[in-house]
């Protein structure tokens, strides 16, 4: 059996990874980083840089353009990187992502939906409900939960987030097809050596 390829991935994908085709999972040796590192791009850069294997060793990076050097990391020899500006585009595909962004959608992946209060109140500093509502309504028209098939939070979590943020929340089924395709393409890129 060929050696498994190191996968450096955002923790936002950890649950989804476990539901992928076992044949695909077996090709990787995954390392998932806390998704809240997005709130500190320099720290995210540092963690990924430290985890990169010696140049020429195949590695797949499952991140969007989430930190200043992510594009550079993806251009190293034997490195494959998932295509997409962020996790939502990786799951939705570029066309659907653009369509929803143009419509004013704010996305929640399952992992961030489960801890929406931490994301909004602590990480984004929107502890004041009215400020959060004003900020979100200026820029967004709806909340969209991307249903990847990972266990959903309870209805009360959706209701609380929608009420606090002041936007309707709807669920869009996306599954893991986009994620799987992105991983397969990045794996081929890594094994081809760029």
Walk me through this protein's architecture:
The protein is of the alpha/beta class and 194 residues long. The protein has two domains: 5-87 and 176-192; 89-173, no CATH class. 47% of the residues lie in helices and 18% in strands. The chain is built from eleven helices and seven strands. It has a four-stranded parallel beta sheet with strand order 2-1-3-4. It has a three-stranded parallel beta sheet with strand order 5-6-7. The chain is globular and about 50 Å long. The two termini are 23 Å apart. The relative contact order is 0.18.
In brief, what are we looking at here?
This protein is of the alpha/beta class. It has 11 helices and 7 strands.
What distinguishing features does this structure have?
194 residues, alpha/beta, 2 domains, four-stranded parallel β-sheet, three-stranded parallel β-sheet, 11 helices, 18% strand
Tell me the total number of β-strands: 7
Helix amount: 40-55%
Morphology call: globular
Order of helices and strands: EHHEHEHEHHEHHHEHEH
Structural class, judged by helices and strands?
A: alpha/beta
How far is it from the N-terminal to the C-terminal residue, by CA? Answer: 23 Å
Strand order of the largest sheet: 2-1-3-4
The total domain count is 2
- Helical segment tally? 11
Q: Percent of residues in beta strands?
A: 15-25%
**Average pLDDT:** 95
Computed over alpha carbons, the radius of gyration is 17 Å
Low-pLDDT windows of residues: none
The description of the largest β-sheet is: 4 strands, parallel
């Amino acid at each position: 059996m060929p050696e498994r390829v190191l996968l450096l991935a955002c923790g936002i994908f950890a649950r989804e990874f476990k539901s992928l085709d076992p044949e695909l999972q077996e090709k990787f040796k995954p390392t998932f980083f806390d998704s809240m590192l997005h709130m500190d791009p320099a720290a995210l850069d540092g963690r990924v840089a430290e985890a990169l294997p010696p140049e020429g060793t195949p590695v797949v990076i499952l991140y969007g353009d989430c930190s200043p050097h992510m594009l550079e990391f993806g251009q190293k020899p034997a490195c494959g990187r998932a295509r997409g500006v962020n996790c939502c585009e990786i799951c939705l595909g570029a066309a659907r992502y653009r369509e929803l962004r143009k419509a004013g959608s704010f996305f929640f992946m399952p992992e961030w939906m489960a801890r929406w209060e931490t994301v909004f109140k602590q990480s984004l500093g929107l502890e004041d409900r009215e400020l959060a509502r004003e900020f979100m309504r200026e820029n967004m028209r709806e909340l969209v939960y991307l249903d990847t098939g990972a266990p959903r939070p309870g209805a009360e979590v959706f209701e609380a987030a929608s009420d606090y943020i002041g936007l309707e929340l709807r669920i869009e089924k996306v599954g893991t097809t986009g994620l799987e395709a992105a991983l397969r393409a990045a794996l081929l890129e890594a094994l081809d050596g760029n």
